Amino acid sequence: MAIDIRKFVARFVEEARDHINRLNDGLAALEAGKADNEGINTIFRSAHTIKGSSRMLKLTTITDTAHKLEDVMGGLRDGSLQFSPPLGQLLYRAVDALSALVDKLGETGDGASLPPADAELCAALAQAAVGQGGAVAEAAAPASMPAQSAAPVAEAQSPAPIPAAPPPAAVPPAPTIAAAAPAPAPLAPAETKLKTAETVRVRLTKLDELIKLMGEVVSSHARMRQRLLDIRMIERELGDTAGEQVAAGLRHFAHALKDDVQAQEVLMDELHDKTLLMRMLPLAIVFEPAARLVRELARSVGKQVECVVNGAEIELDRQMIDKLSDPIIHLIRNGIDHGVETPERRTAAGKPAQGRLTLSARQDGGWVVIDIADDGGGIPLAAVREKAVKKGFVSAEKAAAMTDREVVDLIFLPGFSTSSIITDLSGRGVGMDVVKQCVLDDLQGVVGVETRPGAGTTFSLRLPLSLAVMRVLLVEVDGLPFGFTAQYVSELLRLPHEEMLTVAERQAVIIRNEFVPVVPLAELLRTPARLTKRPDARGARATNMLLVVLRVRNEKIAVQVDDLLDERDMVIKPLPEHMRILPMVSGMVTTGKNELVGVLHAPALLDLARRARGQAVRAEAETHASESHYKILVVDDSLNTREIEKDVLEAYGYHVTLAEDGLDGLQKAMEGNFDAVLTDVEMPNMDGFSLTARLRQEEKYRDKPIVIITSREKEEDKRRGVQVGADAYIVKGDFDQSNLVDTLRALLG
After folding, report:
1. 136 pLDDT above the threshold of 70
2. Would you state the pLDDT for residue 715?
3. If you average pLDDT over residues 343-358, what whole number do you get?
4. End-to-end CA, the chain
5. Are 129 and 73 in contact (CB under 8 A)?
6. 434 with 326: CB under 8 angstroms?
7. Do both 487 and 415 map to the same domain?
8. pLDDT at 654
9. Per-residue model confidence (pLDDT) at position 577
10. Among 418, 441, 464, which residue terminates a domain?
11. Is the residue at 341 inside a domain?
């Protein structure tokens, strides 16, 4: 995806002018004999930065000039060139040319309006770079005077022959004064004006302090809202005891305070948004050097890897970008060393000899998703299991019982590596744990992994746009307040207790054709029960359960809470050093009552709930004899539904394979030989009715049990299920795990 240079040209002009100032200062130091090696390095880096940034924005004229200037500066840096006054004049001329081009770009905002590079200047710089001093002196001569006066001076130094006079009839007689003039009068010099920059350079530390202060202002505004609640409470408490005049005064004050608070909030939100924009930078800052790293690392290990970059124009807070470098570097090294195969192995597998590593970014609501994908061989799950057992991370029995998702998670353990040899690139067991720690703890994001044998692996980093201020939902559990960042909150629901199902010894509800596990937050956090329950004035609402549905990538969990307290933009403050080992808490916020509230980390809650569910499933499996070794294919586009159905079936000894939609289910059914198929109806690519009909056309599935499990409960849907060949039709609203198991037993005989 090409970068829209109009969006970034103003920023480039600002930075280029800063580098041009450094170039001028450095040349002045060289001229005065005060420049050391670091000074030369500084101006070399400035020329290099202008070249690289302009190349990324397709500003060819600036790139060519800066490139030639960089070559000369490189010669000064490595000692192959010695500084001299003529060389200094040539360098000044080059810097002036760059300055003029940058000024022109700043005026028009369009790279297409730039004139072509000065061919004479570029040629002189190229000759200077290889040490041709004569060309330097000759090229530097005209640089010290205006272009308009260059021609007359040249004539004075080297008079040209006077041409023959034209015929008298062709030329009218000229006045005597004009004839006596030695040369045409020079053009009047253009009016000189001092140019003022349209931008101001601010140190990043000062900008960070401003953002931090703005965040505190947003946070402190909660106290203003609390004062509004206080005055309303005073109104209610006084009631009829206050005189009419006092009551009217209180109402007037409350209304005025409400208006003031709302007006201030509107202005504050606008100020906060504009403040954050000042610190937003494009991901190209990270992606462009990462693409170079891919090429260098691939050459170092004898592999051919093409790097593809998409979405480099997506912007993130500079604070986020600063912390992204290490995770992306680790994932690139991992993709090249472990992912992409050698040309020989790729050719043998029928792949192109050249592999591909893709860096892409996209915006997804309040998140930015960064994908690092390779088209290699995928994560070798068997090797991961074997190495985990060998290193003592898990027992052999536990490794054999782990799901593919759990096996993939092992690569994030500290000290884990599947490499058989330690090299400069890998094998030390560090890297992936750094990625997870940085993304989850420092960036408040999520790491996801998708891998397919022989087709490659994709690591997805889901990151908030900024960490300065985040939307927080405050809830109450057993009288204690807790917070969730809004990025993880999928929805809020009040449901009757009768809609709760028991599946695989865990509770769940059905939300839009999807099983979602339900866990009381008090149970997950093990909060101490209150000695006295506060009175509940909500009436009928108290008969319903209040659920906060959290979503981490494609996985959901509904946590049951007692009450909702607030939802506001808040400053999340990091935990003190001695408390950062707490995996459940990502930070703290301050309420209007100056209370400290812990912000819960949704991915950690999901991990905890998943482990608890796994323990319950294993406990249930131990109570049942492994009565069956049948192989079951479960097809559903909901990850939660697939996992719940898998838990139920595995508890009764069935071997389960999962498919994420109808087309994936058909492919896996063709590749394998399953004793029964369980399928949803509403799925992308191919629905459950079509899948059932297609399977019935295959000889090996003509008589195998096919069970449809769906939220569709209309009679016409059930009839259609029978028509396409389903043996059973289970409505998710009436789902019962024993019913499912009994149905399979009856169908499998």
Report:
1. no
2. 85
3. 90
4. 57
5. no
6. yes
7. no
8. 86
9. 73
10. 464
11. yes
Query: Are residues 41 and 91 both part of a single domain?
Result: yes
Angstrom distance (rounded) from CA 191 to CA 452: 68
What are the tens digits of pLDDT across the range 247-301?
788 888 888 888 888 888 888 878 877 877 787 888 888 887 787 788 888 888 8
Between CA 135 and CA 144, with CA 138 as vertex, the angle to 5 degrees is: 135
Residues 6+ apart with CB under 8 A from 661: 635, 637, 683, 684, 685, 686
CATH number of the structural domain spanning residue 389: 3.30.565.10
**Is residue 503 in a domain?**
yes
| Cα Rg, the chain, nearest whole Å | 36
What is the pairing mode between strands 280-282 and 315-317? antiparallel
In whole angstroms, give the CA distance from residue 247 to residue 123.
86
Q: Tell me which range, 152-166, 226-240, 356-370, is most confidently predicted by mean pLDDT.
A: 356-370
User: Among 301, 294, 291, 293, which Cα is nearest to 342's?
Assistant: 301
For residue 568, the enclosing domain spans 470-528+542-609
Same domain for 300 and 238, yes or no, is no
- Which residues lie closer than 8 Å to 125 by C-beta, 6 or more apart? 68, 69, 71, 72, 90, 94
State the Cα angle at 439 between 646 and 459, rounded to 5°.
55
What is the Cα–Cα distance from 711 to 513, expressed in whole angstroms? 5
Alpha carbon distance 452, 459 (integer Å): 12
In a domain, 707, yes or no: yes
546/520 Cα distance (integer angstroms): 10
* Confidence at residue 736, expressed as pLDDT on a 0 to 100 scale: 67
Query: 698 in helix, strand or coil?
Result: coil
Note the Cα 398 to chain centre separation in Å.
34
CA distances from 694 to 541, 656, 731 (A): 47, 21, 22
Confidence (pTM): 0.58
Helix (H) or strand (E) holding 516: strand 515-520
CATH number at residue 688: 3.40.50.2300
**In-domain check, residue 176:** no
**Torsion angle of the four alpha carbons 709, 712, 717, 718, in this order, in degrees rounded to the nearest 10:** 50
d(CA 586, CA 484): 10
Is the pLDDT assigned to residue 494 strictly greater than 80? Answer: yes
Where are the strands (E) in 61-153, listed by range? none
Residues 379 and 322 in one domain: yes
Average pLDDT of span 656-665: 89
For residue 399, what pLDDT band results from cuts at 50, 70 and 90? confident
The residue among 227, 259, 279 that closes a domain is: 279
Of 375, 353, 372, the C-alpha closest to 291 is: 372
Q: What number is the average pLDDT over the span 22-29?
A: 87
Residues 351, 434 contacting (CB under 8 angstroms):
no
3-state secondary structure of 703: coil
